[in-house]
Amino acid sequence: MSTNLESDTMMRCAGCDTAEVDGIKLKKCTACNLVRYCSVKWQKDHRPQHKKKCKKRAAELRDELLFKQPESSYLGDCPICLLPLSLDNDNSTLMSCCCKTICNGCNVANQMRESK
């Protein structure tokens, strides 16, 4: 007996419990991707039980997509603090000594260090 209930659930129709085998192709719920159905009939019949979980998961997926931060801007990261460089060029400085672009925060810190 399998202990991974999620994988068992993902490979069976949520309405009639038919397993996905060679002849039967299950389709995912397009809103939440949590359950699968063998036919539109079972999807419609199961909808009242699934609706609450589906809406919650769909909202989570939408929030993940909306609030997902990019790994880095196309300008790259500041080589000193490793934070993504701003897309606004006024918030970064090109250092003539090394031809590297650094953020203004690191530039101010460098100027304060040099003035001591």
Walk me through the structure:
This protein has helices at residues 5-10, 40-67, 104-115, and strands at residues 27-28, 36-37, 92-95, 100-103. The radius of gyration is 26 Å and the shape is rod-shaped. It has three helices and four strands. Strand 3 (92-95) and strand 4 (100-103) form a beta hairpin. Mean pLDDT is 82; it is low at 1-10.
Q: How helix-rich are the residues, as a percent range?
A: 25-40%
Whole-number mean pLDDT? 82
Order of helices and strands: HEEHEEH
- Radius of gyration, rounded? 26 Å
Count the DSSP helices: 3
Oligomer: single chain
Name the overall outline. Answer: rod-shaped
Number of strands: 4
Largest sheet geometry: 2 strands, antiparallel
How are strands sequenced across the largest beta sheet? 1-2
SS class: alpha+beta
Blueprint (SSEs and pairs):
Elements: H1 5-10, E1 27-28, E2 36-37, H2 40-67, E3 92-95, E4 100-103, H3 104-115
Antiparallel strand pairs: 1-2, 3-4
Summarize the structure.
The chain has 116 residues and is an alpha+beta fold. Helices cover 40% and strands 10% of the residues.
Structure characteristics:
single chain, disordered N terminus, 3 helices, alpha+beta, two-stranded antiparallel ribbon, 40% helix, two-stranded antiparallel sheet, 116 residues
